[in-house]
Amino acid sequence: MSELRPELAAIAGMIRPGTRVLDVGCGDGALLDHLVHNKGVDGRGIEISQQNVNACVARGLSVVQGDADTDLGEYPAGVFDAVILSQTIQATEKPAKVLKDMLRIGNRVAVSLPNFGYWKVRASLLMHGRMPRTRTLDQTWYDTPNIHLCTLADFIGLTQEVGAMISEAHTLDDAGHTRRIRPGTVTGGFFGPNLMAPGAIFLIKQGSARPD
Amino acid sequence: MAQDPRFTRPVTAHEADKGQALTFDTLPLDCGRALTPVTVAYITHGTLNADKSNAVLICHALTGDQFVASTNPVTGKPGWWISLIGPGKPIDTDRFFVICANVIGGCMGSTGPADLDPATGKPYGLTFPLITIRDMVRAQKLLVDALGIRKLFAVVGGSMGGMQVLQWAASYPESVRAAIPIACAARHSAQNIALHEVGRQAIMADPEWKNGDYANQGTFPSKGLAVARMAAHITYLSEAALQRKFGRNLQNRASLSFQFAPDFQIESYLHYQGASFVDRFDANSYLYITRAMDYFDLAEEHDGKLADVFRGSPTRFCIIAFSSDWLFPPAENKIVAHALNAVAGNVSFVEIKSDKGHDAFLLDEPEMFAAVDGFIDAAAREAGIP
């Protein structure tokens, strides 16, 4: 089996062995496959691309062809220990609804996303006056599926708005490596992760209790 | 105990494996009557392993039969699903013990309206009781029990076969490890009931039908049955496939005939489909089996709540739909996936892009083969089947 890219490995680290997990936008199933085979997870996936769904089913994963915007409503509350949304929230039509649905379905929600507040993105827009294209956001504005880009600060704002709290945070660097940070520091200081990190991974859950 | 099956239509391929048949004392039916006795004709491929854990039941569609992977003794044609089933195929007969039975109400050896009613000594005709998909599955359960199999590794079928797969999972959840319902739905739609009624009326309008008593009166409603088949066959294809295959091409002529003889290739094709069908199928069977499909509504016994059908189901599902299927559109198939999601069931749902319409499930669809292959293999690993 090929090694997970560091971002997925960080998400995998948030998943408790032997639990039931839903991976929304599971792509070709690399993460789900890893969780099922290495962590004994009872894994399910939702994926929009037929090709990817077929790839997942062909590797023995339970994946439904569907769409985070329309299909999450079908799942009952609290049946998953964790719900994963990896690099997908910025491509959904209604990110707030998707996030609320995930918090309803799962006890814990792992979200990774690109940071539109990253200094290279800001600098690119400032210098060139055009929609930025970076390593993580490499498509033209008219071709990109990313219709709801946000900064890390924006995302934290959304979690507060939907009544959720962040219990774990990791930043992503340009090489794709991850670093665990204290959730409170994401928006802290001008040179904090909201400026310096190209992306981040958050583990969130309902309520505003003390982070675990 | 097993006997030779009795086919309603004449056998043309005498060297073909005719399979076998088992007769049971009685089968209670949903309509309140019973079939006494009832015969189930079937064929098997491969070898049942020592702990009887590798059995795969294939459920056939409306006009299908048990000759899924071997020459059909009546038509002499190859098995109808040899693309999927056989040595080295996604459903590998070197690995699994494959069973396929003719549905009750059929005309390939299982008890149907063309059989003799033991009470009168004459063919049942319309005195044959109305049957349901659940009755068909009940008969298959008798067979599976008689073969000593407590839990089927998988139940697989397309169209009406898919309905039986869903019914199996609903009626006998502990007896089904994996289920692959293909190109089907949890209930027959109004449009599909309407299309079936056209076919039935075509048969009944044939003067040779004789109110279903044609076997006693020495006639056969070939014309009505052929029209029913022609109309149905259109629904198995898609507009795009018809256009691609036939367009407005003329059949054996350079210009329009200005007559009602078939001018267009699509007309001759349908005539051929109708004509070859009446040689292998019984008209009353067609009435009874289409009716069984019309009556199918899996959620009915759960107050219309499909999710409740699958609550706590231990079965793994792989639902497969085809994009151009307008008889059982992907959305209808997906309703089942949603119902399973709603009870946290174990389900995969794959929509295959194809322009071949409903019939795609019988055709060369590599994406379907890959999905079935992967799903079956994962389930087999979980079940410890080498």
Task: Give a written overview of the molecule.
The complex is a heterodimer of chains A (212) and B (386). Chain A has one domain: Vaccinia Virus protein VP39 (Rossmann fold, 3-Layer(aba) Sandwich), CATH 3.40.50.150. Helices cover 32% and strands 25% of the residues of chain A. Chain A has eight helices and eight strands; from the N terminus they run αβαβαβαβαβααββαβ. An eight-stranded mixed β-sheet of chain A has the order 3-2-1-4-5-8-6-7, with helices on both faces. Chain B has two domains: 20-188 and 297-383, Rossmann fold (3-Layer(aba) Sandwich), CATH 3.40.50.1820; 192-290, Rna Polymerase Sigma Factor, Chain: A (Orthogonal Bundle), CATH 1.10.1740.110. The longest helix of chain B is centred in the last third of the chain and has 18 residues, at 366-383. Chain B is globular.
Draw up the topology in text.
The complex is a heterodimer of chains A (212) and B (386).
Chain A lengths: L5 H9 L5 E5 L5 H10 L2 E6 L2 H9 L3 E4 L2 H4 L8 E7 L8 H11 E9 L4 H10 L23 H10 L2 E9 L5 E4 L11 H4 L2 E8 L6
Parallel strand pairs in A: 1-2, 1-4, 2-3, 4-5
Antiparallel strand pairs in A: 5-8, 6-7, 6-8
Chain B lengths: L19 E5 L2 E2 L5 E2 L2 E8 L9 E5 L25 E2 L4 E2 L4 E5 L14 E2 L4 E2 L9 H14 L5 E7 L1 H12 L4 E7 L7 H15 L9 H4 L4 H15 L2 H7 L19 H14 L4 H13 L10 H4 L6 E7 L7 H13 L3 E7 L13 H18 L3
Parallel strand pairs in B: 5-8, 5-11, 6-7, 11-12, 12-13, 13-14
Antiparallel strand pairs in B: 1-4, 2-3, 4-8, 9-10
